[in-house]
Amino acid sequence: MSDVQIRDDRAAGRLEAFAGDELAGHIQYFVLDSPRGALVPVHTIVESAYEGQGVAGSLARELYGIAAREGVVVAPLCPYVVKWAERHSEEAPAADPELLRAAKDWLIAHPEGF
Description:
Elements: E1 4-9, E2 14-19, E3 22-32, E4 38-46, H1 55-70, E5 73-74, H2 79-87, H3 97-109
């Protein structure tokens, strides 16, 4: 979707896609500090009016772009982002299994909001 604007609301843990003033979708994520810095996407949600228009892919691509710019990795727990990363391995380096375990452990210890 070419006219979508993506905004990172780090405080809320949401990467949001807007079509004009309307929220088209978002990725809910958290920041993991240990064993190394990572962005951890948990859920990807696209509003029904925007399904099939590339919103989720644009969000996933931007999340990996943000991680690269910040010098961290993405440790995807969100099933959509996992599949997207498999299809776009040149843009989405695989996360270390130890890092994925740490992300899962963090999520289990902090389920609120997810």
